């Protein structure tokens, strides 16, 4: 779908007449200098100005003689030697040193030379002599081989024939048996205009020679390798032409063949077999092919033609043409045609492609003019922004323009929807700016511009005979698209007839501006710069409106979609803006400025330009031949292969075989960071052809030429967002359904707007099936925040509040209300869908509506029958679930209706339904609820069946634990209530809720069981209350109290046990002893004095007091010693780990390249491997049981010396010691008071001093033990994006983090609290 567009046409009258007539040319690709060989000598032209740098005469040095026919047969610039090698027909091989301007004859062939051809890398040169021999020489002109051109053998690649059977007995296909007896046709000799000279063409290390056989006079091709060994000979081809060129890619060898009715360019494989051809667009006796030339990247084949003059025209100068052909999808296109006219001075005498720039062609003419053409690949497509743009793409094919509107249909090349037949070859196609974006103009080789407008009427064959219908209809079929009709023809003869415009395509880069005006580029010979011509096209002859010199060479032009602005790129990368000043009425040419106000300049020349509006400002886009993509001079991508502008996105294809969609609301500085977003994979080598505006269609072309249409998700969602925003719900729905976009987007983009526009949505969709499809896809989530969050820029600004209200309920209620208001009968299925799709499906309501329709069928034709409605519901709901819902309504007729429409076997449900039909109502409902496992409802209905069914009810309650709900069905005085409560109490006893069981049993007056429960849970107060209800005697009560006192003493509840002994057992001495066991000194003293048992003070109280004092003192001394030992050990452990960490860090800093090692590097150190081995075992606990995991955690806190977790275990132990000592302050305080009371001041002072010293020691060591952050900074684990190998290794070797993070926190600062002390003991 690409065309060749001329980007440069530089011409100069470079060679004066006194230097002779040019005959050959060569180019220095590095400097751009052009070297021309004439019939008198050699001339060097400057690469920029194309003026003469130097020249040398070969006649003065006698290499060329004026009196004989000697001439140059070829010249070649040699890069390594900085010289020009020339070969003459007289046999001399000459070197012209460019630096010293000296000539040197490096060799002479007595028989003369007919051809000189250098290999592509210039290490070999092949010479053909007048004796029909080939001489292979090195670049130093040392002969290697010499052999005859004409060889009798085929070559090393000769085909092998097995020799099976005879020709007469073989099958000959459609030719029939007579083919076996046909004689071989004789080969026709060479063409009459053939110069009979050999031709040589190189490809890598092989070359092909075309020569005329001295036997039959026919041309043959012979393929040789660099050792001059014949590889193959071409098959016999009659009337083979002299032109020869081997494709640089090596696949084909091009030549020409004249047939009786046409002239063809034919191709040969390396083995000599024919491989395709294409027909040249002229008659058999109209033209002769002088040369064929492949460009350096094998994409363009140049055909150099000359007119055959016969009869009256024989005395005229023949016209000369150069045609450029390309191939795609096995079809050859004529893309450019250069007509040099009949003037002898304009006749090309040498044509050559540039070796560095693939699409640059150098031409030198008979009159001394040098012309340089350069083309670039472009896609001629419309650039509108509205839906009126049909997305036309125009393909040039000789005198035809192939057109396809991709908005309406996609037709792969070489076919097209229709074509425009022009009078001569087309060189450029341009489309109109808005509003007539579909109109086009074709620039012809004769200097005529033909304008076409789109016939917007109904598709029909237009009266214009130049329009040919192809794949879009015709030949009896109805056309499917509107076609163009010719509007007018405008001639440019006033410009082309001038002397300086005699060169073909002097005017190029035609751009269609607003108001039917054209902008084109010409060349000013005097200043060697480009000139802009602003032309009017309203009349038959173009008129010059404005002429403006540029001050440089124009390389590319790009017009804005409205035709008001043109971006102009110069060969130095500068970008200019051309626009009309409406006030002054004259054009303005100024630098193009970026968003920051800086002039835009591409660092590399861009062969493709584009314009778009980015972040509110018009922006210029550029793509180089090396796949670098620029936006306002900023490089965005380095592997971009093509680009196109959509409504809100910039599309790029890359060498990674992806298509990227970049948002245009971003600035050029931000695009480089967004190139990896919104990417989709495409086929390898895909290129963008066009994107359809206001649509989602993107057309890609594959390398082989076929087309592929894709719909990037970004464009689809962007288009859907626009349509929903403009309330075009039907179009949005159809796009979403076609491209499988989640239909929740209809309501999630703008929930508030959607809820207010539900009537409009229903009206537009009309079809209830569309509504049902939308409703069935509803889900309880906001897809703008989940599924499509990365595609939608406005996601989350106005979203559903899913926490407080159900989205599905809101949507279903709104749609259901609208449908009910419009027509309940017509939209019944939609209403049913709304009920089903709620967060809690209202299946019962659906069945009720179906039941109503069953009883009262709809009267209108659009209504839905109950059978249809039920069948529809069965599509959305599982039949078993719907059957159960129908069963739950207790309407057996409805159940039967659902069952009949399901796939259930009647044997499954009919007996069950008959059984239900014969039951009493409550029993029937109980049976149904029990079947549906609705046990609570089943219990309710069973409770209404009377006392006879209570046993079943009690069994149901016990089986399904329905105690609470069933108790509410009976009064507290009823027998049923008591029976259920008793069962409930027994259930609680089994579950271990003993106290609660006692309460329930007390409520139902099961006193014995309640007493056992309270006694079991040691609730002595409730137990005594129950005992009184059982009318226990004093002795029984005392025995109960004595038993429970023993339980309480065993549970360290001595105070409560003492109450029972004192008040119910009447054992005051036992009560006092129990209080002393619990260290409740003051309460024991109270009971002693109450009962006047002072004797116990000496016998029991004081000894117990002193014993408690000694025990408390020993506890404090032990904990103090243990605290000191753990603290000292912790300091040692930390010191050892800090030392190890310092050593590791020293080793790591010594290794300067440690940060270069990857995580999987094989370069490891001893300490890192040891650490990994030491801690690798901790990960194995993931597969253990809970018990084994707890055991493993306990092992981690082992105080064993050398343990990897020893420091953390010490911290845990120290914290436990501090907590235990801190808790003992209250006990010590009470003990001190009693000691002082009974005169044990010495013991009390020792105890107080011991506790005070222990607390002081712990308080002074808290900061040392619990350091800030739980450890030294060197030992903290450092992870994250800023971590290094050093920090991670240091933290690993310092030890893992604490198992319990609480360990790292110091105890609360309560150690300094002195309220527990007695002041009277200070100083004792």
Automatic annotation (TrEMBL):
<dbReference type="Pfam" id="PF23878">
    <property type="entry name" value="TPR_ELP1"/>
</dbReference>
<dbReference type="GO" id="GO:0005829">
    <property type="term" value="C:cytosol"/>
</dbReference>
<keyword id="KW-0539">Nucleus</keyword>
<comment type="pathway">
    <text>tRNA modification; 5-methoxycarbonylmethyl-2-thiouridine-tRNA biosynthesis.</text>
</comment>
<feature type="domain" description="ELP1 TPR">
    <location>
        <begin position="924"/>
        <end position="1086"/>
    </location>
</feature>
<dbReference type="InterPro" id="IPR056164">
    <property type="entry name" value="Beta-prop_ELP1_1st"/>
</dbReference>
<comment type="function">
    <text>Component of the elongator complex which is required for multiple tRNA modifications, including mcm5U (5-methoxycarbonylmethyl uridine), mcm5s2U (5-methoxycarbonylmethyl-2-thiouridine), and ncm5U (5-carbamoylmethyl uridine). The elongator complex catalyzes formation of carboxymethyluridine in the wobble base at position 34 in tRNAs.</text>
</comment>
<dbReference type="GO" id="GO:0002926">
    <property type="term" value="P:tRNA wobble base 5-methoxycarbonylmethyl-2-thiouridinylation"/>
</dbReference>
<dbReference type="InterPro" id="IPR056167">
    <property type="entry name" value="A-sol_ELP1"/>
</dbReference>
<dbReference type="InterPro" id="IPR006849">
    <property type="entry name" value="Elp1"/>
</dbReference>
<dbReference type="GO" id="GO:0000049">
    <property type="term" value="F:tRNA binding"/>
</dbReference>
<keyword id="KW-0963">Cytoplasm</keyword>
<feature type="compositionally biased region" description="Polar residues">
    <location>
        <begin position="1173"/>
        <end position="1185"/>
    </location>
</feature>
<comment type="similarity">
    <text>Belongs to the ELP1/IKA1 family.</text>
</comment>
<feature type="domain" description="ELP1 first N-terminal beta-propeller">
    <location>
        <begin position="1"/>
        <end position="355"/>
    </location>
</feature>
<feature type="domain" description="ELP1 three-helical bundle">
    <location>
        <begin position="1095"/>
        <end position="1265"/>
    </location>
</feature>
<feature type="region of interest" description="Disordered">
    <location>
        <begin position="1158"/>
        <end position="1199"/>
    </location>
</feature>
<dbReference type="GO" id="GO:0005634">
    <property type="term" value="C:nucleus"/>
</dbReference>
<dbReference type="InterPro" id="IPR015943">
    <property type="entry name" value="WD40/YVTN_repeat-like_dom_sf"/>
</dbReference>
<dbReference type="InterPro" id="IPR056166">
    <property type="entry name" value="TPR_ELP1"/>
</dbReference>
<dbReference type="Pfam" id="PF23925">
    <property type="entry name" value="A-sol_ELP1"/>
</dbReference>
<feature type="domain" description="ELP1 alpha-solenoid">
    <location>
        <begin position="713"/>
        <end position="916"/>
    </location>
</feature>
<feature type="compositionally biased region" description="Low complexity">
    <location>
        <begin position="1158"/>
        <end position="1172"/>
    </location>
</feature>
<dbReference type="InterPro" id="IPR056165">
    <property type="entry name" value="Beta-prop_ELP1_2nd"/>
</dbReference>
<dbReference type="GO" id="GO:0033588">
    <property type="term" value="C:elongator holoenzyme complex"/>
</dbReference>
<dbReference type="Pfam" id="PF04762">
    <property type="entry name" value="Beta-prop_ELP1_1st"/>
</dbReference>
<dbReference type="Pfam" id="PF23797">
    <property type="entry name" value="Beta-prop_ELP1_2nd"/>
</dbReference>
<dbReference type="Pfam" id="PF23936">
    <property type="entry name" value="HB_ELP1"/>
</dbReference>
<feature type="domain" description="ELP1 N-terminal second beta-propeller">
    <location>
        <begin position="395"/>
        <end position="689"/>
    </location>
</feature>
<protein>
    <recommendedName>
        <fullName>Elongator complex protein 1</fullName>
    </recommendedName>
</protein>
<dbReference type="InterPro" id="IPR056169">
    <property type="entry name" value="HB_ELP1"/>
</dbReference>
<keyword id="KW-0819">tRNA processing</keyword>
């Amino acid at each position: 779908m690409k065309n060749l567009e001329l980007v440069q046409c530089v011409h100069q009258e470079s060679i004066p007449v006194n230097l002779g007539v040019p005959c050959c040319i060569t180019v220095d690709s590095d400097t751009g200098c052009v070297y021309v060989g004439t019939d008198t000598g050699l001339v060097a032209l400057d690469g920029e100005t194309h003026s003469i740098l130097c020249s040398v005469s070969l006649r003065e040095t006698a290499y060329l003689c004026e009196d004989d026919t000697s001439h140059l047969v070829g010249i070649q610039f040699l890069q390594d030697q900085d010289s020009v090698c020339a070969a003459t027909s007289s046999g001399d091989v000459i070197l012209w040193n460019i630096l010293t301007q000296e000539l040197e004859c490096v060799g002479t062939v007595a028989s003369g030379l007919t051809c000189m051809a250098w290999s592509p890398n210039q290490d070999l040169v092949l010479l053909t002599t007048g004796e029909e021999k080939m001489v292979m020489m090195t670049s130093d002109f040392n002969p290697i081989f010499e052999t005859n051109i004409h060889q009798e053998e085929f070559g090393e690649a000769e085909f092998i024939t097995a020799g099976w059977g005879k020709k007469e007995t073989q099958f000959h296909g459609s030719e029939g048996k007579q083919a076996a007896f046909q004689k071989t046709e004789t080969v026709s000799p060479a063409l009459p205009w053939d110069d009979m000279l050999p031709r040589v063409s190189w490809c890598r290390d092989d070359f092909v020679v075309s020569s005329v056989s001295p036997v039959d006079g026919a041309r043959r091709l012979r393929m040789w390798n660099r050792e001059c060994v014949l590889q193959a000979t071409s098959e016999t081809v009659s009337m083979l032409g002299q032109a020869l060129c081997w494709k640089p890619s090596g696949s084909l060898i091009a030549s020409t063949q004249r047939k009786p009715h046409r002239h063809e360019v034919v191709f040969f494989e390396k083995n000599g077999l024919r491989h395709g051809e294409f027909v040249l667009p002229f008659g058999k006796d109209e033209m002769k092919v002088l040369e064929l030339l492949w460009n350096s990247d094998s994409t363009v084949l140049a055909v150099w033609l000359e007119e055959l003059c016969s009869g009256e025209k024989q005395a005229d100068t023949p016209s000369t043409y150069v045609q450029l052909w390309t191939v795609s999808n096995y079809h050859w296109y004529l893309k450019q045609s250069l007509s040099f006219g009949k003037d002898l001075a304009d006749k090309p005498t040498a044509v050559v492609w540039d070796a560095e720039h693939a699409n640059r062609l150098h031409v030198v003419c008979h009159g001394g003019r040098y012309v340089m053409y350069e083309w670039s690949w472009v896609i001629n497509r419309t650039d509108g922004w509205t839906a009126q743009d049909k997305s036309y793409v125009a393909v040039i094919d000789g005198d035809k323009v192939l057109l396809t509107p991709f908005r309406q249909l996609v037709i792969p090349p070489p076919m097209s929807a229709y074509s425009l037949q022009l009078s001569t070859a087309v060189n450029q196609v341009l489309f109109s700016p808005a509003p007539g974006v579909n109109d086009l103009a074709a620039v012809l080789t004769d200097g005529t511009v033909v304008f076409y407008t789109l016939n917007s009427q109904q598709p029909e064959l237009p009266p214009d005979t130049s329009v040919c219908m192809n794949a879009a209809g015709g030949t009896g079929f109805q056309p499917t698209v509107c076609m163009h009709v010719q509007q007018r023809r405008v001639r440019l003869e006033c410009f082309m007839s001038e002397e300086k415009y005699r060169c073909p395509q002097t005017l190029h880069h035609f751009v269609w501006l607003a108001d039917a005006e054209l902008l084109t580029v010409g060349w000013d010979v005097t200043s060697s710069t480009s000139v802009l011509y602003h032309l009017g096209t309203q009349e038959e002859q173009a008129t010059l409106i404005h002429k403006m010199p540029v001050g440089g060479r124009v390389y590319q032009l790009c017009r804005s979609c409205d035709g008001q602005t043109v971006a102009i790129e110069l060969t130095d990368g500068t970008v200019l803006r051309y626009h009309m000043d409406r006030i002054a009425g004259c054009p303005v040419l100024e630098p193009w400025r970026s968003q920051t106000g800086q002039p835009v300049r591409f660092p590399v020349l861009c062969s493709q330009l584009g314009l778009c509006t980015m972040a509110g400002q018009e922006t210029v886009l550029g793509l180089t031949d090396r796949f670098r993509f620029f936006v306002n001079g900023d490089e965005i991508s380095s592997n971009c292969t093509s680009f196109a502008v959509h409504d809100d996105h910039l599309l790029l294809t890359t060498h990674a075989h992806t298509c990227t969609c970049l948002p245009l609301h971003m600035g050029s500085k931000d695009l480089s960071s967004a190139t990896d977003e919104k990417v989709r994979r495409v086929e390898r080598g895909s290129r963008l052809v066009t994107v359809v505006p206001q649509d989602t269609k993107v057309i890609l072309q594959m390398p082989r030429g076929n087309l592929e249409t894709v719909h990037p998700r970004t464009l689809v969602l962007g288009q859907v967002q626009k349509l929903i925003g403009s309330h075009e719900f039907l179009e949005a729905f159809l796009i979403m359904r076609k491209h499988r976009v989640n239909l929740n987007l209809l309501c999630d983009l703008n929930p508030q707007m959607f809820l207010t526009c539900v009537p409009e949505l229903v009206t537009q969709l009309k079809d209830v099936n569309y509504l049902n499809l939308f409703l069935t896809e509803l889900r309880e989530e906001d897809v703008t925040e989940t599924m499509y969050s990365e595609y939608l820029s406005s996601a989350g600004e106005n979203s559903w509040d899913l926490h407080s209200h159900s989205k599905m309920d809101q949507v279903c209620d709104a749609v259901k209300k609208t449908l009910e208001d419009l027509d309940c009968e017509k939209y019944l299925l939609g209403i049913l869908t709304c009920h089903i799709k709620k967060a809690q499906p209202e299946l019962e309501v659906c069945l009720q509506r179906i039941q109503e329709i069953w009883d009262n069928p709809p009267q209108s034709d659009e209504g839905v029958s109950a059978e249809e409605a039920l069948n529809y519901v069965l599509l959305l709901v599982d039949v078993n679930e719907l059957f159960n819902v129908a069963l739950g309504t207790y309407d057996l007729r409805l159940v039967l209706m659902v069952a009949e429409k399901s796939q259930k076997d009647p044997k499954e449900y009919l007996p069950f339904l008959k059984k239900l039909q014969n039951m009493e109502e409550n029993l029937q409902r109980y049976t149904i609820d029990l079947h549906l496992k609705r046990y609570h409802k089943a219990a309710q209905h069973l409770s209404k069946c009377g006392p006879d069914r209570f046993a079943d009810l009690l069994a149901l309650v016990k089986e399904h634990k329905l105690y609470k709900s069933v108790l509410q069905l009976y009064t507290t005085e009823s027998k049923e209530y008591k029976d259920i409560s008793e069962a409930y109490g027994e259930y609680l006893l089994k579950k271990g809720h003993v106290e609660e069981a006692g309460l329930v049993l007390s409520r139902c007056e099961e006193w014995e069981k309640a007493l056992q429960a309270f006694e079991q849970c040691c609730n002595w107060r409730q137990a005594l209350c129950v005992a009184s209800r059982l009318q226990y005697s004093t002795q029984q009560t005392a025995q109960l109290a004595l038993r429970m006192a023993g339980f309480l003493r065993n549970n360290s509840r001595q105070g409560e046990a003492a109450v029972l002994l004192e008040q119910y057992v009447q054992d005051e001495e036992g009560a006092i002893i129990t209080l002393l066991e619990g260290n409740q000194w003051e309460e024991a003293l109270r009971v002693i004095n109450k009962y006047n048992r002072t004797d116990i003070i000496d016998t029991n109280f004081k000894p117990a007091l002193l014993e408690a004092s000694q025990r408390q003192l020993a506890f404090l001394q032990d904990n103090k010693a243990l605290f000191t030992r753990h603290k000292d050990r912790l300091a040692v452990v930390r010191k050892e780990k800090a030392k190890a960490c310092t050593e590791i860090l020293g080793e790591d800093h010594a290794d300067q390249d440690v940060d270069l090692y990857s995580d999987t590097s094989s370069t490891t150190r001893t300490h890192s491997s040891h650490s990994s081995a030491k801690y690798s075992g901790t990960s194995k606990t993931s597969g253990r049981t809970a018990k084994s995991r707890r055991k493993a955690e306990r092992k981690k806190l082992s105080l064993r010396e050398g343990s990897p977790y020893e420091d953390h275990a010490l911290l845990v132990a120290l914290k436990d010691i501090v907590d235990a000592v801190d808790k003992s302050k209250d006990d010590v305080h009470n003990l001190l008071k009693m000691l002082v009371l009974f005169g044990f001041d010495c013991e009390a002072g020792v105890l107080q001093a011991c506790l005070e010293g222990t607390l002081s020691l712990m308080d002074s060591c808290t900061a040392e033990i619990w350091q800030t952050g739980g450890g030294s900074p060197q030992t903290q684990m450092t992870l994250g994006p800023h971590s290094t190998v050093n920090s991670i290794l240091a933290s690993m070797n310092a030890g893992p983090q604490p198992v319990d993070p609480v360990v790292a926190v110091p105890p609360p600062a309560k150690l300094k609290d002195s309220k527990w002390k007695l002041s009277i003991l200070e100083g004792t």
